[in-house]
Specification:
The chain has 83 residues and is an alpha/beta fold. The chain has helices at 13-24, 60-71; strands spanning 3-7, 29-35, 48-51, 75-77. The protein is 29% helix and 23% strand. A 4-stranded parallel sheet has the order 3-2-1-4, sandwiched between helices. The chain is globular, with a radius of gyration of 12 Å. It starts with a strand and ends in a 6-residue tail after the last strand.
């Protein structure tokens, strides 16, 4: 079964390590990424990338939930401590 995996804060060093590890793994997955910046390093390394508000913004959780529903996300891997 192919997994839909979301990696948040895709421009962060943590997220870059997560993305690299996922791509080196034998998992069958589609990668969905999010970041607050349109030029984030990992935002375009997957099937889809979404620009989201910062985690402290009141709309952050709603935006993440909408993406999860749209992309049928199975797993979220957090790329920053703040989230």
């Amino acid at each position: 079964m192919k997994l839909n995996i979301m990696v948040t804060a895709s421009g962060s060093a943590i997220a870059q390590g997560i993305i690299k590890s996922l791509k080196m793994s034998s998992l069958d997955f589609d990668l969905i990424t999010t970041d607050t910046q349109p030029y984030a390093a990992g935002l375009y390394r997957g099937k889809a990338g979404y620009i989201v508000p910062m985690a402290k913004h009141p709309d952050f959780i709603d935006k993440i939930i909408k993406i999860c529903n749209r992309e049928n996300i199975d797993c979220i891997l957090i790329g920053t401590d703040y989230e």
